Amino acid sequence: xxxxxxxxxxxxxxxxxxxxxxxxxxxxxxxxxxxxxxxxxxxxxxxxxxxxxxxxxxxxxxxxxxxxxxxxxxxxxxxxxxxxxxxxxxxxxxxxxxxxxxxxxxxxxxxxxxxxxxxxxxxxxxxxxxxxxxxxxxxxxxxxxxxxxxxxxxxxxxxxxxxxxxxxxxxxxxxxxxxxxxxxxxxxxxxxxxxxxxxxxxxxxxxxxxxxxxxxxxxxxxxxxxxxxxxxxxxxxxxxxxxxxxxxxxxxxxxxxxxxxxxxxxxxxxxxxxxxxxxxxxxxxxxxxxxxxxxxxxxxxxxxxxxxxxxxxxxxxxxxxxxxxxxxxxxxxxxxxxxxxxxxxxxxxxxxxxxxxxxxxxxxxxxxxxxxxxxxxxxxxxxxxxxxxxxxxxxxxxxxxxxxxxxxxxxxxxxxxxxxxxxxxxxxxxxxx
Length: 433
Prior knowledge:
This protein has 10 helices and 17 strands. It is an alpha+beta fold. Strand 7 and strand 8 (170-177) form a beta hairpin.
């Protein structure tokens, strides 16, 4: 039986032999590529988790927020609403709403058929801060609406809003203080120029209508020997620490004071602490359960440091004593009985332990912060891994180039073999004939 050149496929044989020769190094480089790619992906995820955790910590450390919630109830909700932050102290208060704060508002009447003065200085004073609009700068055929726009856009306007209102044959230029309170009084004056129409503005100011008087809010605090409190707004945040009073309606003379009760909301407080615990566990378990992170010295070291930050004392007490502890598997847990006792017995101390300047959350914030910076530890780590991946990619490209040369060599050899066999078959055929 003769060997036939037709049974040889040079390209297929070259491909098979090349694949055999390159297989081991392909596997090695592919494994390295996959390893570095997965590690980069893992650190991207870790940085995202750290940034989210850090953002929550910073929000929790703001003075106006707290893990521990209070609730506030009213005996009558007709004249005010109330909210209590975690800083509020449980207690009972009596409030009588005597007056609401108002923003000063005046209206100047104009005849819309008359032309606006082409010159003169329109002066506006708000609580001692004044500015002037030069009517000559408004342009030819300026209208009252142009004056209103010039007032609103003036660089020195400290808080006066000008609007137009129309009623029948009158157009009103309405001037309103953006801030309420007795001190925020709007005063108007006009210095006429050569244009006789300036008299219309002078007359409008002289006959202006006060739509709303500038006044402070006034409340009486206490059922007897009441303390009088005034404010420029109807939102009182500093009268009772941690409590915000929103005044909505004046009470009638002879009405009973509104009784405000501030008390601890333990269910919301426990839910807030649980959210913090869950976020911590999610962050740490995200490291310890990921093979690409738990084998890394930096990531595993961070996980240990975060857990170690719970050790020691805060405000002279351990976190275990207030119900925050680690279980046998290393997860942070809450002992509700001890936590509830701490919230009831000394909520202020508990707040300082967790959210004070030297508290747990501040400690964790300092621990996490270097890993969240744009050019911080995580970025350095990722850059190192990316550099290693880039080297592997270059090695793969070089290997592919080298294996292409090997393929061409095999292809040349098997093509030559095919040609040689074809020549032999041709020669043998001649002898046979």
